[in-house]
């Protein structure tokens, strides 16, 4: 099992860690229904959002939790379901938080978007991790990790060679002069 090599950033949480809810401003609020208004209950929405934005210490974590769990209903992280809709639709393409990628490299099981997963894969391959480590960090089989590493190395090899190949095409080596015999004519 991969061990953590660096502390987790305070605004991030591992998958399944709901301890942040203990600090949620809405948890102690006398009217928890405020966070599940109808779309046209503007006064209630405004009240809920005010609590989120002005008093809640875990607003950012709450917002990310909604995105990661694809929770569609209610006010999360100070945003209504309508305001979050576009982000929910596009979250897999939009979020690119390097802290999350670094946390996964350090062994923390934080949730990643598709873009963050791409970045993680690139970073892990650049670090030349061994196959078991690579598989653990990317959460893939060792067979798949080995194939990824081979593909990456092939790509690096070709990238390193391509300037040499293109230089050879642009400036082909000049032909060796033909041997000249005593008659002065080329053989
Ligand atoms: S940001 Fe709002 S919804 Fe989220 S935990 Fe805080 S008060 Fe509750």
Keyphrases for this structure?
187 residues; mainly alpha; 2 domains; 7 helices; 52% helix; elongated; binds iron/sulfur cluster
Please give a structural write-up.
The chain is mainly α and 187 residues long. It folds into two domains: 19-94, no CATH class; 98-168. 52% of the residues lie in helices and 0% in strands. The protein is built from seven helices and no strands. The protein has helices at 42-55, 59-69, 81-94, 98-105, 114-126, 131-138, 142-170. Helix 4 (98-105) crosses helix 5 (114-126). The mean pLDDT is 83. The structure holds iron/sulfur cluster. Iron/sulfur cluster binds next to helix 1 and helix 2. Residues 24-26, 35, 51-52, 56, 58-59, 62, 75-78 line the site of iron/sulfur cluster.
In short:
It contains 7 helices and no strands. The protein is mainly α and about 190 residues long.
Helix content: 40-55%
N-to-C SSE string, H for helix and E for strand: HHHHHHH
Rg over C-alpha atoms, rounded to the nearest angstrom: 28 Å
The low-confidence parts are: none
Average pLDDT, rounded to a whole number, is 83
Number of helices: 7
Ligands, ions, cofactors = iron/sulfur cluster
Describe the main β-sheet briefly: none
Tally the beta strands.
Answer: 0
Q: Structural class of the secondary structure composition? A: mainly alpha
* Global outline: elongated
N- to C-terminal separation? 71 Å
Number of domains: 2
Beta-strand residue fraction? under 5%
């Amino acid at each position: 099992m991969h061990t953590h090599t660096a502390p987790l950033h305070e605004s991030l949480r591992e998958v399944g860690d709901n301890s942040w809810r203990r600090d949620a401003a809405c948890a102690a609020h006398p009217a928890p229904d405020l966070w599940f208004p109808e779309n046209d209950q503007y006064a209630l929405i405004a009240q809920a959002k005010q609590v989120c934005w002005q008093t809640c210490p875990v607003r950012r974590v709450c917002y990310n939790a909604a995105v990661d769990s694809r929770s569609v209903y209610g006010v999360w992280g100070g945003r209504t379901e309508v305001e979050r809709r576009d982000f929910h639709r596009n979250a897999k393409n939009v979020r690119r938080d390097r802290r999350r990628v670094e946390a996964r490299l350090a062994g923390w099981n934080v949730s990643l978007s598709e873009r963050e997963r791409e970045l993680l894969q690139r970073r892990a391959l650049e670090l030349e991790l061994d196959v078991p480590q690579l598989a653990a960090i990317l959460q893939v089989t060792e067979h798949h990790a080995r194939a990824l590493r081979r593909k990456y190395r092939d790509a690096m090899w070709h990238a390193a060679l391509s300037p040499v190949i293109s230089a050879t095409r642009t400036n082909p080596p000049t032909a060796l002069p033909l041997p000249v015999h005593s008659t002065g004519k080329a053989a």
